[in-house]
Design a protein that fits this description.
There is one protein chain. This protein is an alpha+beta fold. The protein has two domains: 2-91, no CATH class; 109-286. It is built from five helices and 22 strands. It has helices at residues 57-60, 128-132, 135-145, 174-177, 182-197, and strands at residues 2-3, 10-12, 15-21, 26-28, 34-37, 40-43, 46-50, 64-68, 78-80, 86-91, 109-110, 160-161, 163-165, 178-180, 202-207, 221-230, 235-240, 247-248, 251-252, 260-263, 269-272, 281-286. The strands form six sheets. It has a six-stranded antiparallel beta barrel with strand order 15-16-17-20-21-22. The protein has a five-stranded antiparallel sheet with strand order 2-3-10-5-6, with no helix packed on it.
Length: 292
């Protein structure tokens, strides 16, 4: 990032006039803002910032600096300048921020640094056989670690039931035996987003095989959603996988980045746990939080 010398900056009519050395410059092309030079026009990203917030507003405009973003020549979005020498640019609408929207168009949230993880394979849940069935209890501990009430995630009329197993599908194929209600799935996503934005995780049930010991006859396992983000073309949610005791680098695999549920076109969340990529999770239900 190049700083343009303050003595080369003039603020006038909500625009900045700056001098910029164009020799060997690689500049990011932007459709967000234009800069007009003496010899033609150029698309540039620019930003005006005050030197010191303590300077009175009436003086601050005259003591601003303009930042033009300069990129390495290996950047696919950077274009080499065809101009030489020092050129003056007029950059309009300098009070506006240039903000590039990510794919999900939502704030990325990661609560993992704030919430203590819990595996179900812990003597606090009893002997080994009891630990094998302790995923829900481990998830409840995580909710309490986040400051939520022990009464959170009740199995009552507040459950958002997204998926259910049908009686006619091929029991070896989730695509066949599992029915997704898209409208309810979108409602579930909205609730998860609402809670994450308030700083709370959300307990969800997942299906990964036909048949279930739970009351909805669909959910096979429980995990806790603890964040959201996106790649260039996929939105996802981080989750704590309580069903593992495997370690990597001194950390339980259940809390690592590989535990992601991706948003599908039908509104459902689908993914695999990091410790067992052969297991396919589809969120079947969302349990609601209770504040303390």
């Amino acid at each position: 990032m190049l700083k343009v010398l303050t003595q080369d900056v003039e603020i006038k009519d909500n625009s900045a006039i700056v001098a910029f050395d164009m020799n060997e410059a690689y500049l990011h092309i932007s459709t967000m803002r234009k800069a007009w030079s003496e010899g033609g026009d150029f698309d540039l990203i620019a930003k005006v910032e005050a030197h010191d917030s303590h300077i009175p507003q009436e003086r601050r405009e005259k003591q601003s600096e303009v930042l033009l973003l300069k990129f390495n020549r290996t950047s696919s979005s950077a274009k080499k300048s065809t101009m030489a020498g020092t050129r003056k640019f007029v950059i309009g609408a300098v009070e506006e921020e240039v903000e590039e929207k990510c794919f999900c168009k939502k704030e990325h949230i990661d609560l993992r640094s704030k919430i203590v993880y819990q595996t179900q394979f812990d003597p606090r849940f009893g002997n080994r056989a009891q630990q094998d069935a302790a995923c829900f209890n481990a998830c409840k501990v995580i909710l309490q670690n986040a400051g939520l009430s022990p009464n959170s995630a009740p199995n009552d009329g507040t459950v958002i039931q997204i998926a259910s197993e049908n009686s006619y599908g091929d029991k070896t194929s989730q695509a066949s035996y599992l029915s997704i209600n898209k409208a309810i799935a979108m409602h579930g996503l909205a609730y998860i987003d609402e809670q994450l934005e308030q700083g709370y995780p959300v307990l969800v049930g997942v299906d990964h095989k036909s048949g279930s010991p739970n009351t909805d006859k669909t959910t096979d396992h429980f995990v806790v959603i603890v964040g959201r983000g996106c790649t260039d073309n996929e939105a996802f949610y981080y989750f704590y996988e309580v069903g593992t005791e495997q370690m990597e680098g001194g950390v339980n695999k259940g809390k690592l980045d590989g535990n992601k549920l991706y948003v599908s076109t039908d509104g459902s969340l689908r993914g695999t746990p990091y410790h067992n990529p052969n297991r396919n999770y589809i969120v079947s239900q969302v349990r609601k939080n209770v504040l303390p």
